[in-house]
Amino acid sequence: MDISVPSHIAEQISNRCLRCYNEQQWYGENFLFDYIGDSNVSGKSILEIGCAEAGLLKFYFDKGAKCSGMELSDIRFNNAVLLNGDNSLHLFQANICEPQSYDNELVEKCDTIIIRDVIEHIENKRLALNNIYDLLRPGGKLFISFPPKYCAYAGHQQTIPNIFGKLPYLHLLPNRFYLFCLLIILILVPFTLNIFSIFFFKFILFAPAGTLKTILFCSDKLVDFSVTKGDIILSYKCILFIMSISFLILLLNFQ
Q1: Higher-confidence residue: 142 or 212?
Q2: Vertex 14: Cα angle to 158 and 239 (nearest 5)
Q3: 93 pairs with which residues across the strands?
């Protein structure tokens, strides 16, 4: 499911968040709507806590529901406003653990409340659930989802934009080691890659005539020769491979 977004809006939002927006709508259409079992949501009040880009609410809004989205993050809230400026979604920033932050936004009880992959980020879960209960209409429905603790990516490390973020089960390490690993993945690895790319670029730049002159980077292809004549595009995966081979060659030379 690929929802078209105007180019002037898409250029203000990261590719990852645009993918999330599409996935949220897909999730509603292909799973959640049937799972909850409401054949007709027209006129019903639906609240999503931690709505992010509000793609799920967009799906329910198109079904005729009255939708409200609570989001804590500045970036995700701004994305939601940009992506849903043409419809009547009720979007606001608030913290579910602080009722005073949303009292003026939610004046009626909700028929359905959705909190998807959010509860694991809330420290005081009992307080959050008590507040959610207070917002729910008698006979209303509450949907909660979260990644199991022992699944490979329960720590959401797969969202880190480099290959080391795909390492599974990092979140099961003790907190200090987990934070240390995240620090390495987020800061030291990109820094090392950037330093390596600068030296590699200089090597190509001063290479003899007839060799490739430009090195660029992309994340979706391993190697792409199709840009312009004399250009080569290398992804981080390819650079890591080159670094590994270079390191092995150095080790062999020292033996």
Answers
A1: 142
A2: 55
A3: 71
Q: Are 161 and 176 a contacting pair, CB within 8 Å? A: no
Cα 137 to Cα 21, 126, 132, 143, distances in angstroms: 28, 19, 10, 14
- Count how many Cα atoms sit within 13 Å of the Cα of residue 153 in the half-sphere of its side chain: 10
Residues 3-61 have pLDDT tens digits of 677 787 888 888 888 988 999 999 999 999 999 998 899 999 999 999 999 999 999 99
Cβ-proximal residues to 255 (8 Å cutoff; 6+ apart), any chain: none
User: Beta strand pairing status for 223-224 and 231-234?
Assistant: antiparallel
Cα separation of 208 and 17, whole Å?
A: 43
Structural domains of the chain in order of their starting residue, each with its CATH number: 7-146 (3.40.50.150), 170-254 (no CATH)
